[in-house]
Each structure stands twice: as C-alpha cells, then as structure tokens.
Amino acid sequence: MASSSSTGNSQAASTTTNAPRTKLPALAAYNNALVLLPPLEVARRLAPFRAVHDKAGTRWTSHVTFIFPFVEDRHLDTTLATLRPIVNAFEPFDISLTSVGRFAKPSGDTVHLCPGKGIKSQEENIQRLWKAVASAVGYKGRAFVPHMTIGQAPNSGDQHALEFLNTKADALLESVKDIKWTLGSVVAIKKDEKDGGIMKFYDELFLQGCSEISYQPGPLSQHIYLSPSGNWQWSTDIIPESLATLPEDLSIATYNILQDPLIPIVPRIPQLIDTILEADADIITLQEVTDESLRLLLTPRMAVYRFSSRDPSVVCENGRNVLILSKYPFTSRSLDTGNKHKPATLAIFDLPSSSYTGSKFVLAAVHLSAGHASALLEHKARELTSVIQYVQTYHPNDEVVIAGDTNWPHGIKCAPIEENQAFTDVATALGFEQPTYDPSSNALAAKTVKENKNAHRYDRIYIRKNSSWNISDIGLFGTQEDAPSDHAGLKVHLQREDVTKNPHTITTSTLPNLSTSFEHESHEKSDPEQSLGSCSITEKDLNDSFTTYDWLPTTEQEQNMAAALELVRQVICAPVERSSQAQEVTQGAHDQNSSETVPERATPRPDVVLKLEAVGSYALGVHTCESDIDCLAVGNISPQTFWLLARSRLLAQAKQQTGTGTTVVKLRRFVKDAAVQMMELEAHGIKIDLQYCVAPKLVERWSEIPEIPVDSPLFALPASSLVTLSAYRDVLILRRVIPSLSAFVKAHRALKLFLSRRGLVGARFGYLGGFHLTLLLTRVAITLPHSAGRSAPHLVEAFLREYAVWDWTQDTVHPIPAAAAVGTGAYKRVVQREPMAVLSISKPQKNIASNASWNSVASLSHGLQTANATLQSGGTWLDVCGTNPLKSFIDEYRSFVKIEVHYWGGDCMQGRALMGWLESKIVSLLVQLHMTVPEVTARLWPQRLVDESVVDPNTRDPNSFYLLGLSLFSQGDEQTARRSSGELEAALLNALRTFEQNVRSNEKYYNAASTFISVSHAKRTQLPSSVLVDPFKWADNGIDLADEGDLEEELEEYALEAAAPGTTQLLSIGLSEEAGDDWEGYHIPSSSQRKRAAAAKAKARVTPHVPAGKLRTSTDVYNRLMWDATGNVAKDAYVIGYEDRFKGIKETPLTAWKREVEDESFIPFHRVVYFKRLTDNVHVWDRRTKIDLVFGSGAGAS
Q1: What is the rounded CA–CA span in Å between residue 210 and residue 552?
Q2: Which of these ranges, 142-151, 372-381, 743-752, 1103-1112, has the smallest mean pLDDT?
Q3: Residue 451: which pLDDT band, with cuts at 50, 70 and 90?
Q4: What are phi and psi for residue 206, nearest 5 degrees?
Q5: Does residue 403 fall inside a structural domain?
Q6: Does a structural domain hold residue 472?
Q7: pTM for the complete prediction?
Q8: Domain around 444
Q9: 3-state class of 925 per DSSP?
Q10: 889 & 998 share domain
Q11: Is residue 836 part of a domain?
Q12: Which of 278, 651, 790, 806 is the least buried, fewest Cβ under 10 Å from its Cβ?
C-alpha cells in the first residue's frame, strides 16, 4: 500500500501544484488550526501525561500540527472548501510514531514524538501532503517538522526535568510504537471560548476514498475496568448503574506504598498486595505509584477491585503518582493543584438522587508536597485549597471526601481545612490521633526520615460537613513489624443516612467547628468570585500567565530552597560547646612575656545564642522562580565575632563533607564595607543572603517576639540594628494583618510578573522592588471589602485601579492603617527630594522609595495607567503582561539616551563592580535630566541590552548598552515650554556630556585601558534592528574571590578588632589551620601579642623595592591564562608558584588551581608569587620583580 500510495501522492502533489488557485486570506487566527489526528487509542495513552506536562495538554488533544495559525472564522468555510479537492487528490497512507525528538527554545525544551521519522515512505507522504496544503494557503513560515508534543521542560538549564521528560518520552513511545494507522484525513479544529478554550472538531478534509469521521477531540474522561477475561479495558461510556452501586456501609482507605530508589519495590509487592487486600476497603487510594509498581499491582490477585483510575499499559505522568481502586464503577479525571508533580485525582460515583443530598459521590485523592518549612507548608496549603475550591465550585451539592497523604505535620493546624470550615477531619472528629508515619516503630520510616524524626499523622481523610454519610469507625492497617511501606494505611467506615427520612440528623454537622483567630466568610455559594462582584480577571488568567512565563518555582526548587535554608541554619546556629578549661582560658589569659593580663570577668561568660530566620519574599511566600533567599541571624555576640564564627563553621563543614557527596553551604562573597554587612552563600543551587543583628536580650526571648510590645526596652537597640531586625518584624506583622495570605501571594506574584515584563522593576533604578510591591499591595488588601480581599483577581484589579490614579507627588503610601502599624510616628516628607514616598512598617520609619526620581515615577505611573486601561477595555492578563514588552518599549519612543559600556579587562570581579556602579549612577542621570530638561520625560529600561546580531556566546567580556526612552512632557511650566527644539536638544546634550565626563573621571571604577563608556542621544532608526537582553555571564560564575584583600585576611583583621581592649565581646575565635575547629585552646591575645603578630606578618610580606608601574593582580593573570591564553601555548603549559606557610614556594599546575573557598585545596590569590611558562621556564608574571609579560603592566609598563 505504501508504494502505490507514494506514487499516487506524487502525482497528486504535481497536479495540485500546477492548478490555478484563488488567493486565500492571511494565516493570522490562533483560534483555528489544521491538524492530523491519531487514533483514539494513541490519544488516550498520551492524554494523562500531556495533561500534566504539556502546556496545551488540557485544551488540545494529541495531534500533529499541520497549519497553525490558520485563517479567521469568516474565511474558514471558504478556505476549507478550496482545500477539500486538494487533500482528496492524495491516497491514504500508513503512519506510526517512530522516535523521540526535542526542540530547544529559550523558554524551555519541548519533547515530542515523531511520526514516520526514519521510514522514508511515511516521511515523504507526510511532506507531500503538507506542501500541497501549505502552498494552497500561502504559508510562508518555517519548514514543516512533523511532531506530536508530549511536554515541556521548565527551562533549558533544568537537566533533571529534561532527563525525566526524555525518559518518560521513551516509555510513551514504547507504549504506542506498535500502533500503526492509516491517515485518512486532515482535521480542522476550532477553539471553544465558552468551554475553557478547548480546541474542538470543526470539519474534516478526507483523503481519497475515505469518509469515516474522526473522533471529536476534547477532554478524555477515564473509565477503566477489569474485563471477565482478566484484561484492563477503557471506555468513555458510563457503565450502567445496574452493574454495581455504592453500599450503605462504605469503607474508604488511603495508603502510601513508598517509592524510594534505595528500597526496591519489586520485593515488597507481594506483601503490599496482601496488606491492601486485608484492609478490604471498598475504595482505596494509593500514593507513590510508579510505572513499574502499577503493572505489578494490577494483576489477577487484585481482581476484587474491578475499577481503576489507571490502565497499566498507560505511562504515568510523574515519578510518584496517585491510583484509585474501587469495587464499584466510577469515572475519573486529573485535577491541577498548581504543582504539576502533585495533581489530584477525582473519582466520581453516581448516586440515586432520591436518597442523597446530591447526585454524585466525589472522592478527591491527593498527595501533597513534602516538607515542614513554612514556605512548603504554604505550598501544600495552596495545593489543598485548589482541590477544595474546585469541589466547592463544580460539586457544591454532592457528597465529597478528600483522602490521601497530606504530608501535614502533627501539631500544626491545617489552614485550608480550618479556614474553609466546609470539611471535617474524620480522625479528629473521633478523637483518633494515632500517627501514620512513625520512625520509632516502622523500620522503613526510620530509613526514609529526613529532617524531623517525630511521628506524624500525614495520611488523612476529610468529609464534607452536612453530608448524608455518618462516620462510624476508623483504624490503621499495615502496621505489622515488617511493614512493606514507611506509612501505615488509614481506613474509615461511613454509613449512609437516608435524608428523605431524617434530613436534619447528620452526624458531620454536629462535629466541633474548627476556626482560627481570623473571621472567615461563609462558603455557601458554589462560585466564590460571584459573591465578590464582577472582575475582569479570573484565577485561570493568573494561572495561565504563570505557566506561560514559567514564573513559579518548581517543586524541586521549593524543596531545594527549604533544604538550603535548613542547612544554613544547622551550620550557622549549631550550639557552641566549650569545656570548663576553655572557659577558664578565655576568662583570664596571661602573656608570659609581658606585664599585661586580660582582666578576669566577674561572672561566667554567657553561652552563644544564635537564631536564623528567613525574611523577605521567601518568608512571605511570594517568591518566584527567579528569587533567592534572604535570611537574618540574630545573636548575642558582636558582628566581628559572628562573621568569624560563620566563616569558621562554613570551612569546617566543607572540609568534613569533602568526598562524601553531601551538599555543603558555599561561601560566595563577604560584603564587609557595605552599610549592612552580608555574606552571600549557596546551598542546593540556591543563593542565600545572610545578614546579622546584635540583640543579646531579645534573642533569649525569640519565640515571644510576636507578643512583645513595640515599646518594650528589648527593642531599645541602635538604629542600625533596628533597621536590620525590622525585616523579620515586618514579616510577622504582614502575616497577621493580611486578610488572606494565599490570595495575597498569588496577586503579588501576578503583579511582579507584570512589572518585570514591562520593565518597571528595580528599586535601584527608582522603580518598584519586591518589598515596595508588598507594602503597596498590603494597603490595598486590608482596605478592600472583607470578601474581595480574599480573591487574588480582585486584589490585582484593585491594585491597578488604585495606583493608576494615585498622586505620587502629594500622597504618601502608608501600608498599614494607624491602628495596625507598630511603632510608627509621623514621617516628614520633603516632596522636592522625594517624588515617591512608601513608608516602612516598623520603626525607625523611613521612605523605602528613596531612589525614586521624577522620571521613574512618571514611567511607573504611565505603566500602571496603561495596564488598568487594558483591563477596562476587555484585555486579558496576558495582554497586560505583554508578548514582547522590550520591542513595545523601543517602538513607543522616537529618540533615546543610549549608554554604551564596553569592558575587556578580564577581571570578572572588577567588571561586575563597574556594571553595578554604573547602574547606581543612572539614577543621578534621571535626576539631572529632570532638572535640565523638565519638558522631557526619560524612561529607563532596567536591563542591560545588546545587539542580537553581535552576540557571541563565547565572548568573555560584556559589550552592551542601556536605553532611556525620551518623550515630551505635556505639563512643563510656561518658561520651559517656550524653548525651541534646538534649545532642548542643546540642554539635553549638555546634560549627557556632563554625566559622561563624571563617569569617566572616576578612577576607582573607570579604567580607560580596559573600559569605554559613552553617552549619546540616538534616534530609533539608529538603534540595532534587533535588541535583546544581554545574555552575558561572567566566566567565574559570579563568584567574588578577593585577591590582595582576601577573605581570610579580612577576617583575621576582624579577629584582631574583636580582641581589642574595651570591646564588648562574648566569645573569642582564632583562625588557624593548625588548630582546626576545636574551640578548646582559643584565647584572647594580649595587646603585646597582637602587636608582635601584626609586625611579624608585615615583615613576612616585605619584598625588595622595584621602581615600576602598578602591577596587574594575580587574579587578572589567572583569568587571562585560563580563558584567553595568548600565543600558541595551552593553559596546561603554565604553573603557579605560591607561598606555602611551612614549606616556602611550591608550584601547582594552572588548571589544578582551586578558586572556591570551601574547596579543601583552596589557596588564596594573595599567596601567588609567580606564573611560569613550562615550555621555556620563563616567569610571565612575578610579584617580586614586578614582571608582567601577559598585560605589560608593572616593570614592563611604558
């Protein structure tokens, strides 16, 4: 058939190509498409996986895109009529899925199955058919690559996600590759806006001799049952109720069967099946089911369960999945919870409507995210809330049970259940508090436990209040000594009460009413948003924007962030153990060679107490995929001692874990000279910024902080300490006053996405930062009507409506009403210097928008007005965020200020400092422009840009520019309004020249030998035709390692400062490689000891004086030889000579040099003496003689 088909199709292609055609309309409609559809069996095997991992999986059935976009609705019928004879000229041909392919895109990698690839006849037939259709409709796009998408990896750098997707793709291909079908048509599909945007069947263009209508694509409701022959079958039809009905006594169970690579599933399967059968529940939901365990479980031994939510021949969508087994028929569907790795599964059973409050019995099977950190608790709360909201909306009157592994720790209130007040925890109602996860009694739990070894009641069953079912009994199963899982199963018995006989005597309605300290509105209406009034945005709009731009952290990111924070807490806050002998030494150390003695203390030295808490976006739960973690350490030791202690512990844990494969906390940078000192750390791939606050009395009562009055003497701290501490106090206050934290989090993330996309983010540029947005949104949330403040769409709309008309020059933003604010006093604003005022919460109160300029405020106000107008005119949230905001920004202005910066110095640390300094100066340019040319508004795009045509992925130096769009300001005063365009141009150029000269005159950052900065006025036509955000990455991955001022020396200086007479010091620490990290033996050096040590250190560094220019640093030379080796000498032909503390000068290969502080072989750059070329034994750089043959500096400089 393939041979004759190929010949016939060749003739058809020739005929259709030569035939005259009518010109067809443009292909501009994204609501219509031409596709090739596989058989129903292929679609159903791919559907579960695509629903989770393909962004379009819930709206598009499995398909091969033929022409998309297609013609508009008004031209659809005539176009299809034109194409019908063209398609009908082709003979049907066989097709099958033969391989896995991948498209690499900036937003993420798309994995797909390839139809016909590798089979010449299939490839040729598909291409001929496509070329005929494409030619007929005037298609001018990319070449046709037949593919059937199955999913996208989050981003191009997420190798784990990509590997998972590829592995699953291979399994999916294996499940469908034997299904060969005859392609008989090209199908036209059309978006149904009234049904969630699902692409539905519209018309079909048949190939020659075909007339069978293809199935109509849409959501596939799954109904899987065990046939009498022992095979699992699938049907879209509802099985007749006569087959079986739910009994009046119904038992439901939940059981996590454990998936762990270190605990194989195969040996445990027989015992797992025994445990499940012994439980004998009518309906059971299993968690952590895999492709392997699914096939092993659904065997004839489990025939008592004739109905399943999964077919063993269909690949599961995730590594750990939920499975529902039942003795009674049901239909099931997957429910998105906001975490694609943790979807819920709904099982829907029919009920006789005459005997029940509703016509359906709905079981929502869940497996929530793991972890006990506050951010993860909020994450799983959102997952559970999404389930509750769904059943409240779509099953308002049906019987509903939620069951599964909630991973909710014992002793912590389950906020979604208690706030909603519509469901009852069955175990709590019966006073049943036995744990289902207990490492002390379960051997497998003891192996899998990680952060918390306490027993927990993770597995739970909730039933809707006022149900027709009474709770009669509850118990555990799978608790034997050699249990096959780390969890025990939970089983509950329900008894139906006929509501027609006694509709008011419902046991669940008389159970205790759980509540929190906040009042919550009733949830009687099925659609919560309907009671809040109309809103132009929906929850789905916000969720779609998050998905489109991969804005939310993945589950893996959330887990890594929680693990990173906990690891830092363990390392930094570990108890300090000191023997009595060590205390005696520190209390009275005596210098044998001098008359000086450290005064003895009248009282014993107090213990070191340190507390570490997350602050900022992560603490509040508003973090995104781009966020890092800010954390604050509070203690009773001085800053000098704390940084010494932190450094010592970081080095100690790095050495202890070397070679073990255990994750360590890496020290990336120590910012010593800033107003607020900070360490930048990294753990589990997460960047962490650590600050420190001294509060000796407060840290002893740390758990009481939320209740301590604001005027307490405990807060009588220096202003610098209060500013640092307020980051944590603000989080506590915000959590207390925000009406609905879950709605606030979603609204905050949506607004942050909008601001980020539209170039309105960046506190250093005078735009909004994350905390600015938090305070602005808080004010809106607590001033809205009670119910509206609990809806994310209403919050977003109210935010734009409020601040689009806000008078920033006159009105000050007070984030919290006076009654709720803590310790705030009247703030005196100077409008001339503060065009925007957003006040902090805790005292000392300050304006956190101090970087705002008149130009940045005007740009922000215009952006908010435009967004609000877009919504009011019927635009979507995606329209507000913009498809290509950078291009829109460039198209909006006719002229620009262009700040070009070129750096070729090779020193990454110096280059970063240059870029950061230049960005900090742009604010002053905005101020200067407003003063010089107030008639002109300048809007900065807050990202470094580059000409796409000159982007070199291998470049080691940034060569980019910043743009400020210029437009006339309509409200200039009369005097300035009289100036001609020539006068304005002259004033503008004068301001730009002044700024350029000021930048170039700064010797600290600007070095003409390695840097060039120019500032010019450019027309739009003078800009590159294609501009993008600069993708440049520093060669050292952004790690600052000091050279002459190495971290070690800085901290040694701290050690001397910490021991200085008169310093209030609670602990002394020495930095010594010989002593390791044992606290015993450390003592406070006397004054004479410190003087002699400093003198000896200075003497050791003396080198003969050589008259010469400034010598380039060893870091510069290392970078040049490693990354830009000169001549034909390879980098492995160089060695580094460095000074060993005990053995003098030693040599090591250039390529073996370790730059990371936590590496066991780390050597600071200030110990480098020379770089030598092995081919001729020439020192190409020598600190002693100031020779530099690499850059020509030092003695070789002209």
Answers
A1: 47
A2: 1103-1112
A3: low
A4: -85, 145
A5: yes
A6: yes
A7: 0.52
A8: 247-496
A9: helix
A10: yes
A11: no
A12: 278
How far apart are the C-alpha atoms of 992 and 1015, rounded to whole Å?
6
Residue 107 banded pLDDT, cuts 50, 70, 90: low
Helices (H) and strands (E) in the chain, counts: 30, 39
Shared-domain flag, residues 252 and 379:
yes
Short-list 60, 31, 33, CA closest to 47: 60
202 shares a domain with 267: no
Checking if the pLDDT of 1100 tops 50, the result is no
Q: How many domains does the chain have?
A: 4
DSSP 71-102: --HHHHHHHHHHHHHHHHTSPPEEE-EEEEEE
Q: Is residue 190 part of a domain?
A: yes
Q: Angle of helix 120-137 relative to helix 73-88, nearest 10 degrees? A: 140
Handedness of CA 504, 507, 512, 517 (dihedral sign): negative
Nearby residues of 240 by Cβ (< 8 Å), 6 or more positions away: none
Q: Are 317 and 52 within 8 A, CB to CB?
A: yes
Largest CA distance in the chain: 111
Q: What pLDDT, on the 0 to 100 scale, is given for residue 857?
A: 92
Pure H helices in 395-452: 415-420, 426-429, 443-448
Query: Which 3-state string (H, E, C) describes 234-279?
Result: ECCCCCCHHHCCCCCEEEEEEEECCCECCECCHHHHHHHHHHHHHH
Q: Which residue has the tokens 């952006």?
A: 863
Distance CA(728)–CA(619), nearest Å, equals 9
Q: What does the pLDDT look like over 492-503, one tens digit per residue?
A: 999 886 543 333
* Dihedral sign (CA 708, 713, 717, 723): positive
270 and 171 co-located in one domain: no
End residue of a domain, out of 455, 475, 496: 496
- Read off the tokens for 570: 């363990």
Residue 129 is predicted with a pLDDT of 93
Domain final residue, candidates 496, 530, 556? 496
Identify the pLDDT of residue 1156: 67
Q: What span, in angstroms and rounded, lies between the C-alpha atoms of 470 and 249?
A: 10
pLDDT digits 0-9 by tens, 781-834: 888 875 555 688 999 999 999 999 999 888 888 877 543 344 445 677 877 788
* Rounded (5°) CA angle 208-236-63: 45
Q: φ and ψ at 1044, to 5 degrees?
A: -65, -35
- The C-alpha atoms of residue 806 and residue 817 are separated, in whole angstroms, by 17
- The phi-psi region of residue 404 (left if phi > 0; otherwise alpha if psi is between -120 and 50; otherwise beta) is left
Q: Where are the alpha helices (DSSP H) in 1080-1113?
A: 1087-1100
Instruction: Note the pLDDT of residue 101.
Output: 87
Q: Is the pLDDT of residue 1171 over 80?
A: yes
Let me know: does 988 contact 932? Beta carbons within 8 Å.
yes
What would the pLDDT profile of 611-646 be if each residue is shown by its tens digit? 999 999 999 889 999 899 999 999 988 888 898 889
Instruction: Tell me which residue of 737, 758, 738 sits closest to 748, measured CA to CA.
Output: 738
Shortest CA distance to 370 belongs to which of 566, 506, 231, 530? Answer: 566
Q: Distance between CA 30 and CA 382 in Å, rounded?
A: 32
Q: Are residues 37 and 179 in the same domain?
A: yes
Which residues does residue 102 pair with via DSSP β-bridges, in sequence order? Answer: 111
